[in-house]
Design a protein that fits this description.
The protein is α+β, with helices and mostly antiparallel strands. It has a domain of 37 residues. The protein has two helices and four strands. The strands form two sheets. The chain has a two-stranded antiparallel sheet with strand order 1-2.
């Protein structure tokens, strides 16, 4: 169910005995999550948890590191 444009609620999931959850089919389809994909679990004690595809976070990390590299070069060149 779309709540606002780009915001969704996919329903409730239960945590199993081993701490596992099943990501609802609609969410897997919407975010192109497939068997074998790596997911990163992020947490904030005040705001809750988020699950993000690891390849998305990898591309963000690469952009950050590239930015740090260009910043460092600018600093060295004065």
């Amino acid at each position: 169910m779309e709540i606002k444009k780009g915001k969704y609620m996919f329903g409730n999931v239960k945590v199993g005995e081993k701490g596992q959850i099943v990501i609802p089919k609609e969410a897997r389809e919407k975010f192109n999550i497939n068997p074998g994909d790596s997911l990163l679990v992020l947490g904030d004690e005040d705001k809750g948890i988020a699950i993000v595809k690891a390849d998305i976070m990898k591309s963000i990390a690469i952009k950050i590191l590239e930015g740090v590299g260009s910043f460092k070069k600018r600093r060295e060149n004065g």
